[in-house]
Amino acid sequence: MPQHHQPSTLAALGRSWVEAWNARDLERVLALYDEAAVMTSDRIPALGFDASGTVRGKDALRAYWGKALGLLPDLHFTLIDLFVSPDSVVVLYANERGKRICEYLRVNASGLIVQGSANHLVA
Question: Which residue ranges does the record assign to the SnoaL-like domain (predicted)?
Fold first, then answer.
């Protein structure tokens, strides 16, 4: 059974996640993730990573996000809202181009992100 976290703890994680990205501090972002974290996004294959759209582990996340940060010098997330469940937080934000995105972040018992999924509006 998954560990249940306080809503305020998960909301704080969501805010910390946005702040770390806005600081463009990749190691600060990665510190929020478990070593074996899995991330899924349609942007993963577009940047030349796994065709499945999923990367696994911090080293793969570091490579993927490092490349993405290099391509997005104006990256900035504006937090719109946070949604919590006992073991996850969904971060609704607008990026620097005004696109709204939902990021699903599931956490383990230690409060580290073990699964992430970037969800984009259908064009």
Answer: 15-96
